[in-house]
Specification:
Blueprint lengths: L1 E5 L4 H12 L3 E5 L3 H8 L11 H12 L3 E4 L6 H8 L7 E4 L6 H4 L3 H25 L4 E7 L14 E6 L2 E6 L7 H20 L2 E7 L1 E3 L25 H11 L3 E4 L5 E6 H13 L7 E6 L2 E4 H16 L5 E4 L16 H5 L9 H13 L23
Parallel strand pairs: 1-2, 1-4, 2-3, 4-5, 5-8, 8-12, 9-11, 10-14
Antiparallel strand pairs: 6-7, 11-13
Helix pairs in contact: 1-9, 4-6, 6-7, 8-10, 8-12, 10-12
The structure holds nicotinamide-adenine-dinucleotide and sulfoquinovose-uridine-C1,5'-diphosphate.
Length: 390
């Protein structure tokens, strides 16, 4: 297949680009490297040093003989995006990763929240219009998030729910209760994509992905120049990855509040597998389908306890759990049961969290511990400013 990966310089996008290239798909990456600029702006750094995208694709070519094309454009610029999609030989699939994806970033202040909304909402709308205008048969595979649903007191279905009300029934979009301005952009994207499929007969798969963890894939492991980013800071670092780095550094694990917050999780090796499944088994023309992309459910405290136990027993590392005042506004004890049957029924073979995965992440952090800035670990962004805290 001819596949366009937008956001292919990022954590999920880079691992996906290599994997799909290895599978002999013809890959083009679009990225404007804004994420590298956001890192600089906030003085953040990936735990593992990352090469430029040019160096990465050259190394991939040297090692495998495979070419990955790269295009530097900002997808909020509509005419630049149209030039790419208005080609003779159309893309079979467009995978859209290119968003501001940090909940804390979107909650810093007015400016960060507006930048998140413009980048995510305009980018998504531009993709829909460019597909409508130039490439309506291209299958859109969009990275959404499990956080669109929030934590309702009922099971979370895959995008839609059958409702019976006053003697009538309908299949309606599942109610959304996102927990940050970032997560809100994903809800808006989903509505726009659903609308575009209905109205313009486009085809799309919305992958509501859980929190991603892990580092290694077979392709990333081939060379240090192919290294992926690995965020540990309080803005972009996600919880499981952060805990493994914290334990390696002897830093107490930063559990926000009671730690009963329960979320869906997925190993990055399964992220790329799920995306492959979505590409190879595309939505029909006019179809908008939603897959919940995760393999396991854990509470934050459960994860912290699991990681401490592995660190203690397998690596002889002393580990401490610290309950910090929760900087976010979220339920700390709640019901949570989400469904993920769609991808399993299409053949996903889950890679479950093992002691070995935790050990390898801790060892990765030990290898690069000299790069960690400890000041970037404690949370600094409050959902409510201190004067408004109850
Ligand atoms: P990332 O920040 O590592 O990568 C995003 C990439 O998109 C970056 O390289 C960035 O430069 C690029 N980008 C952003 N805006 C752009 C624009 N306007 N034009 C061109 N390029 C642009 O993020 P990630 O962790 O790889 O996440 C990728 C997607 O997966 C996001 O949509 C995110 O919401 C979703 N997701 C991620 C996770 C996770 O835990 N990492 C979980 C669920 C869903
Ligand atoms: N948390 C802690 N301690 C930490 C970091 C986080 O207790 O040091 C808690 C948070 O309060 C939250 C949970 O862990 O309850 C998850 O937080 P996170 O930062 O790992 O993930 P989140 O903000 O939800 O965002 C991440 C990605 C985002 C993606 C989302 C998937 O950054 O792009 O959309 O995971 S989901 O959570 O399913 O919405």
């Amino acid at each position: 297949m001819k596949i366009l990966i937008i956001g292919g310089d990022g954590y999920c996008g880079w691992a996906t680009a290599l994997y799909l290239s290895k599978k002999n798909h013809q890959i083009t990456i679009i990225d404007n490297f804004i994420r590298r600029q956001w890192d600089e702006e906030h003085q953040l750094n990936s735990l593992v040093p990352i090469s430029s995208l040019e160096q990465r694709v050259q190394q991939w070519k040297d090692l495998t003989g495979k070419t990955i094309h790269i295009i530097n454009i900002d997808i909020t610029n509509y005419s630049s995006l149209c030039q790419i999609l208005n080609c003779e030989d159309k893309f079979d699939t467009l995978i859209h990763f290119a968003q501001q994806r940090s909940a804390p970033f979107s909650m810093i202040d007015h400016d960060h929240s507006i930048r998140t909304h413009i980048n995510n909402t305009v980018g998504n709308l531009n993709i829909l219009w460019a597909l409508h205008d130039y490439s309506p048969e291209t299958h859109l595979v969009k990275l959404g998030t499990m956080g669109e649903y929030g934590t309702p007191n009922i099971d979370i279905e895959e995008g839609f729910i059958q409702i019976e009300y006053k003697g009538r029934s309908d299949r309606l979009p599942f109610p959304k209760q996102p927990g940050s301005f970032y997560h809100l952009t994903k809800v808006s994207d989903s509505d726009q994509i659903n609308f575009a499929c209905k109205t313009w007969n486009l085809r799309a798969t919305d992958l509501n992905q859980g929190v991603v963890y892990g580092y290694e894939t077979d392709e990333i492991n081939l060379s240090e120049i192919l290294a992926n980013r690995f965020d540990y800071d309080h803005i972009f670092g996600t919880v499981l990855n952060r805990f493994c780095i914290q334990v390696a550094l002897g830093h107490p694990l930063t559990v926000y509040g009671q730690g009963g917050q329960t979320r869906s999780f997925i190993d990055i090796r399964d992220t790329i597998q799920c995306i492959e499944i979505a590409c190879e088994k595309p939505a029909q023309q006019g179809e908008y389908r939603v897959f919940n992309q995760f393999t396991q459910i854990f509470s934050v405290l459960q994860l912290a306890q699991m990681i401490c136990k592995v660190a203690n027993e397998s690596l002889n590392i002393r580990c401490q759990i610290q309950h910090l005042n929760n900087p976010r506004k979220e339920k700390e004890i709640h019901y949570y049961n989400s469904i993920n049957t769609n991808l399993l029924s299409l053949g996903l073979q889950p890679t479950l969290l093992t002691d070995q995965t935790i050990i390898s992440l801790i060892q990765l952090a030990q290898k690069y511990q000299h790069r960690v800035n400890l000041q970037l670990i404690p949370p600094q962004i409050q959902w409510k400013s201190p004067e408004h805290q109850k």
